[in-house]
């Protein structure tokens, strides 16, 4: 017997059927809607291109020294000039993109994951777990973060992985706090209760229903954090921790070039500095666009 | 006093210009109360916002005129408007809690408006604010002056909002759904207070509401709005007795009232006979001495103090009471989202109270007891489409996959009358009634025996409420479910339920067959609840 036939009910006034829009359409819409977002993504594309294709495109070997060409000002042959060992600053600045992006993206991804898990657990279950986690995170935040990162790298050893770990650790509290707050306000929301009634366990309700709703504000945090992470990695290199010469890295290049500014060879430090600024600026601009893309409510 | 002619308001949106109000004309005479009635999206609130010139960004008055005592509201400068707002025209908003600043003492908020319009100075502001609070019959105003909004009940907050609105003796008061979200007894108290004050001060007022019954009771004249235009205007008794426009007739029909059966809420053309159903003599659910006590800051809080009632298989039981009476706590325990302090919940012979709610999601009984939530918007995950929402219980409890699941989802959509194309929409792309249908489809997806309905129509327009209530009646007959219908409105409960349980202060004050409780209430509190519901004027039998 088929009990599931249609019950004739009174039709409500209906909106005209909307075209169902895919995720890609939505991304295109967000880009079109806000020229700043479009600009940010264009800048991001430039950065990505430099990171992926950079080493293949640059005119000179970033590590090749040439004593006869040392400290040349910018010219047609050397767009950004050459450094004290005659290496091409342009090639070095472009090649450095890959390493700097790698460090920051890896660090941010790591802190995103750890912070999300800790924050979501604290926000959902509360109680002593929340108290304990929150105090630990507060303790981390109580340190001057850059000094903490210096300490971690100095203690664990001077490697690129340790820069990533140090940068991740100092960023975890920001994610954890944000996620904790976002999860906490949705813990008792109707849709979370409904998900429990639908037979979902607590972990699943948290992971599949509550956490995704915290993504839009997280995206803003991620993009700002990418900028910070790059600055942080460059800062550590600047003071001689982490990446070591002769590796091409913006922080080291600025550090090495700084000595030459007084004697008039400004191009050594300025150009890698500008690259750094470009990257940080790009990530800061990216935030709002990313948020709009992951928020289904922005779709019509 | 206020004349509006061909007022048109439009909003710029992503999909082009939307005309929210198109050519509305009405007048409000001195001392008159005008009701603007319409469902959500009819442009009734936008009309009032346009008068106050507080339209959202992107909104503008496109055409027409609005003149208040010789002042052209359309052309007045922002400075002039600031002088008018609060002093000449003031407004009471829908959600009193949202209308008050949560981190400022209520007394200070009253002082703000008094001082803004130079009705008080630093010396006498406190005294005048307390005077204004006493005017809205707040007992112990001196002490309440220092309260923050969260320390006050909803009704008390609305009184404070009234005090703010009336502090500077405005000539015109605009009330935008002043009692939505308040209990029915509080609604009556607030409405009576406001009408009395309006009469005392011989003010004019505009009451904006979706409740035709409420408007009929308190207004001298009513205009009915639909899609940004006025479809009918007239005095309330005439509108009810002889609605001229089909839309007005539909609204009149859909308003729950004494003597009307649930099918009579629907327009006459689509009425079908009420399907027969069988009520068994055996209890499906027996609640025995259920107690819930919370540890509060100042001693234990007794939310539910030992309630007992039965729901027979196929029966619908109404659980009625004001907010804070423990009805929601009781339903949360029954649906196993909350553990009782003591007592039994016998479901088909088994005591569910013994099984902790934390692990109940994996219990085989989970599929048997489901719930429809009060706020359809809040109960749907904003990131899930309707299809994903309905799929959730099917995946987790019925273990349906792929094709079988897709088919079942479409079957459920048909069952609750949700057009299939809407399955791929997100909640914010659906109307209130459509969201309610998604919520119901999710609840009945795994064929539960018992459904807790927590005010499923509280946030809906009356015509949608009528449709949803009738849908619930059809589903009950078709699927043989039992309902526990939680509500504060006895007149809605009467339409759907066979048996009524009235709660007050965590205890059951009365229970019995619906007809008996409604016609001859044994407890004075039940009588008070019945009395508080708005009484729409009688309508013609024809």
Automatic annotation (TrEMBL), chain A:
GO biological process: peptide transport; protein transport; transmembrane transport
GO cellular component: plasma membrane
Gene3D superfamilies, per database record: MetI-like
UniProt-listed InterPro entries: BP-dependent_transpt_permease, MetI-like, MetI-like_sf, OppC_N
Annotated transmembrane regions: 36-58, 101-124, 136-157, 226-246, 266-287
Occurrences of domain ABC transmembrane type-1 (ranges): 97-287
Keywords: Cell membrane, Membrane, Peptide transport, Protein transport, Transmembrane, Transmembrane helix, Transport
Membrane topology note: Multi-pass membrane protein
Location (main, coarse): membrane
Keyword Cell membrane: yes
Compartment list: Cell membrane
Family: Belongs to the binding-protein-dependent transport system permease family.
Protein's name in the database: Peptide/nickel transport system permease protein
Organism: Albimonas pacifica
The organism's taxonomic lineage, starting at the top: Bacteria, Pseudomonadati, Pseudomonadota, Alphaproteobacteria, Rhodobacterales
UniProtKB/TrEMBL annotation, chain B:
Pfam families cross-referenced by the UniProt entry: ABC_tran (PF00005), oligo_HPY (PF08352)
Listed SUPFAM superfamilies: P-loop containing nucleoside triphosphate hydrolases (SSF52540)
Domain spans labelled ABC transporter: 2-252, 285-530
An example molecular function term from Gene Ontology annotations: ATP binding
Any single biological process term in GO: peptide transport
Record's subcellular location: Cell inner membrane
Bilayer topology term: Peripheral membrane protein
CDD domains xrefs: ABC_NikE_OppD_transporters
Keywords, sorted A to Z: ATP-binding, Cell inner membrane, Cell membrane, Membrane, Nucleotide-binding, Translocase, Transport
Chief localisation class: membrane
A GO term from the CC aspect: plasma membrane
Protein family according to the UniProt entry: Belongs to the ABC transporter superfamily.
Protein name: Peptide/nickel transport system ATP-binding protein
Species this protein is from: Albimonas pacifica
């Amino acid at each position: 017997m088929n009990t599931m036939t249609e019950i004739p009910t009174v039709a409500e006034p209906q909106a005209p059927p909307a075209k169902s829009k895919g995720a890609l359409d939505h991304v295109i819409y967000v880009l079109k809607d806000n020229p700043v977002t479009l600009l940010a993504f264009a800048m991001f594309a430039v950065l990505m291109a430099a990171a992926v294709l950079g080493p293949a495109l640059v005119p000179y070997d970033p590590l090749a020294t040439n004593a006869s060409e040392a400290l040349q000002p910018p010219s047609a042959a050397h767009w950004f000039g050459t450094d004290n060992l005659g290496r091409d600053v342009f090639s070095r600045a472009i090649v450095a993109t890959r390493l700097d992006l790698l460090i920051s993206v890896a660090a941010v991804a790591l802190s995103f994951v750890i912070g999300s898990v800790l924050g979501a657990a604290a926000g959902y279950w509360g109680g002593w777990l929340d108290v304990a986690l929150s105090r630990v995170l507060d303790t981390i935040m109580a340190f001057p973060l850059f000094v903490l990162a210096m300490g971690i790298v100095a203690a664990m050893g001077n490697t690129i992985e340790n820069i990533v770990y140090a940068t991740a650790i100092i960023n975890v509290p920001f994610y954890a706090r944000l996620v904790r707050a976002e999860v906490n306000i949705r813990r008792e929301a109707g849709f979370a209760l409904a998900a429990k009634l639908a037979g979902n366990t607590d972990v699943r309700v948290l992971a599949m229903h509550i956490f995704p709703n915290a993504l839009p504000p997280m995206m803003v945090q991620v993009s700002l954090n990418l900028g910070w992470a790059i600055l942080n990695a460059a800062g550590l290199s600047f003071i001689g921790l982490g990446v070591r010469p002769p590796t091409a890295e913006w922080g080291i290049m600025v550090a090495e070039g700084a000595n030459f500014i007084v004697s008039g060879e400004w191009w050594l430090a300025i150009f890698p500095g500008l690259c750094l600024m470009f990257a940080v600026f790009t990530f800061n601009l990216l935030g709002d666009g990313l948020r709009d893309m992951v928020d289904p409510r922005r779709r019509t | 006093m206020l004349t509006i002619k061909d007022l048109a308001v439009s909003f710029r949106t992503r999909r082009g210009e939307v005309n929210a109000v198109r050519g509305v004309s009405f007048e409000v005479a001195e001392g008159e109360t005008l009701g603007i009635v319409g469902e959500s999206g009819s442009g009734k609130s936008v009309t009032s916002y346009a008068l106050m010139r507080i339209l959202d960004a992107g909104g503008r008055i496109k055409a027409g005129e609005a003149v208040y005592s010789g002042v052209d509201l359309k052309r007045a400068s922002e400075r002039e408007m600031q002088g008018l707002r609060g002093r000449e025209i003031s407004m009471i908003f829908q959600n009193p809690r949202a209308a008050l600043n949560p981190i400022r003492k209520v007394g200070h908020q009253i002082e703000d408006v008094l001082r803004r319009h130079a009705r008080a100075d630093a010396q006498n502001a406190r005294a005048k604010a307390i005077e204004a609070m006493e005017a809205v019959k707040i007992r112990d105003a001196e002490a309440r002056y220092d309260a923050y909004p969260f320390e006050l009940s909803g009704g008390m907050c609305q009184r404070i909002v009234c005090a703010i609105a009336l502090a500077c003796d405005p000539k015109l008061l605009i009330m935008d759904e002043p009692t939505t979200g308040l209990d029915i007894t509080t609604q009556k108290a607030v409405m009576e207070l406001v009408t009395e004050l309006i009469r005392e001060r011989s003010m004019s007022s505009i009451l904006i509401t979706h409740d035709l019954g409420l408007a009929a009771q308190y207004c001298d004249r009513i205009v009915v709005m639909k899609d940004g235009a006025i479809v009918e205007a007239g005095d309330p008794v005439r509108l009810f007795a002889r609605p001229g426009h089909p839309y007005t007739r539909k609204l009149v029909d859909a308003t729950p009232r004494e003597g009307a059966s649930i099918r009579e809420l629907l327009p006459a053309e689509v009425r079908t006979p009420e399907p027969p159903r069988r009520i068994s003599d055996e209890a499906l659910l027996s609640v025995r001495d259920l107690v819930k006590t919370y540890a509060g800051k100042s001693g234990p809080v007794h939310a539910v103090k030992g309630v007992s009632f039965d729901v027979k298989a196929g029966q619908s039981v109404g659980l009625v009471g004001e907010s804070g009476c423990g009805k929601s706590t009781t339903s949360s325990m029954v649906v196993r989202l909350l553990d009782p302090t003591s007592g039994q919940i016998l479901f088909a012979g088994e005591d569910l109270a013994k099984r902790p709610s934390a692990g109940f999601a994996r219990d085989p009984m989970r599929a048997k007891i489901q719930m429809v939530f009060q706020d359809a918007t809040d109960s749907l995950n904003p990131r899930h489409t309707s299809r994903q929402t309905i799929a959730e219980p099917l995946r987790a409890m019925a273990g349906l996959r792929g094709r079988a699941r897709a088919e079942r989802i479409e079957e459920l959509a048909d069952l609750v009358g949700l057009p299939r194309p809407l399955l791929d929409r997100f909640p914010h792309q659906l109307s209130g009634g459509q969201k309610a249908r998604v919520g119901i489809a999710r609840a009945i997806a795994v064929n539960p025996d018992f459904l807790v309905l927590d005010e499923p129509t509280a946030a809906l327009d009356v015509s949608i409420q009528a449709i949803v209530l009738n849908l619930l009646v059809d589903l009950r007959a078709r699927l043989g479910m039992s309902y526990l219908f939680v509500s504060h409105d006895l007149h809605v409960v009467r339409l759907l339920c066979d048996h009524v349980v009235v709660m007050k202060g965590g205890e059951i004050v009365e229970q019995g067959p619906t007809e008996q409780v409604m016609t001859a209430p044994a407890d004075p509190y039940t009588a008070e609840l019945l009395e508080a519901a708005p009484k729409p004027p009688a309508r013609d039998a024809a």
